[in-house]
Design a protein that fits this description.
Length: 293
């Protein structure tokens, strides 16, 4: 694997970096199997926590029978310990702390979901930054981008995945006039490749893209193409409650319960969880949503 310093240099400059081999060979089949099980539970209506076709961002609703994501894959009711083991594995933790420039003791547990192909509908996400509104003025955008958001997000493909589109380097500067015009709409683009500076991210099975969630990005979902992509984030607790809005909007009360605590191995996993609880408490239990749509 590329050195930690080289990964961080590319991540800081470009806003993303692709890393191979973060799933040990012996764990790949078990993660695919766990993913297949939770997808089946979701599509059959037995798992209610899902990202629904017709709604791009939280809060999601149950109006659509079709889904483009499975929420809370570490939830004890899913009975899939494979996800916790991988989220807290050496490979993930080492890359996360390298990209965040922090020590392991600073890392905090956050979100872990699964992005899937809808069963019977194509779907797409509009151009957006995860925690900056599309209506932000150039100056508001510049100010927001200059503030460290103390987190890293990633997609790990269990099957080849070309759904994500990004604009490299856009995490460091406001949108151009042309980019702004194409990202003000609440509707997904008819052709993401029309965006100036765009790059379509092609992930081979087992590859991971780590990206700054305030990079300009969108996604397309073809219901004919199998997708099971591990979608997660981890934070740097030195940011205090900086991450609260972007994380807590997904509804994490279940993580405060004793049943979830009992599924966490002592050591690293428990420490990551404790940092999340500190962040949630420091935010005073307040929850608000980052985006509309």
């Amino acid at each position: 694997m590329t050195s930690s310093s080289a990964l961080k240099a590319q991540y800081d400059a470009e806003g993303y970096v692709i890393v191979s081999d973060l799933i040990p060979v012996g764990d790949f089949a078990s993660l695919q199997g766990a993913s297949s099980r939770v997808v089946e539970l979701t599509r059959s209506g037995r798992w209610p926590h899902r990202r629904t076709v017709g709604k791009q961002f939280p809060p999601f609703n149950a109006d659509s029978p079709d889904s483009w994501g499975v929420q809370h894959v570490m939830h004890p009711d899913l009975g899939a310990p494979e996800f916790i083991r991988w989220y807290t594995s050496d490979g993930i933790v080492n890359v996360a702390k390298a990209l965040l420039g922090c020590d392991e003791e600073d890392l905090q547990m956050e979100l872990f979901n699964l992005l899937i192909n809808p069963d019977s509908h194509d779907f797409a996400l509009r151009w957006h930054r995860d925690d900056i509104r599309e209506t932000a003025t150039e100056e508001e955008e510049r100010e927001a981008l200059e503030v460290s958001h103390h987190g890293v997000q990633w997609n790990t493909a269990l099957y080849d995945d070309s759904c994500l589109y990004i604009v490299p380097k856009s995490h460091r500067k406001p949108r151009s006039v042309e980019q702004r015009a194409l990202s003000l709409s609440m509707e997904p683009p008819s052709d993401p490749l029309n965006m100036p500076g765009v790059k379509q991210v092609h992930l081979k099975e087992g590859e991971t893209v780590f990206y700054n969630s305030n990079i300009l990005h969108c996604a397309t979902y073809d219901h004919h193409s199998t997708r099971a992509t591990l979608h997660a984030c981890m934070g740097d607790s030195r940011g205090g409650s900086t991450r609260a809005r972007n994380v807590l909007q997904h509804g994490l009360d279940w993580m405060k319960g004793e049943r979830f605590q009992q599924t966490l191995p002592d050591g690293r996993a428990r420490h990551l969880w404790e940092k999340l609880m500190e962040m949630e408490k420091g935010n005073g239990g307040k929850m608000e949503y980052s985006l509309e749509g």
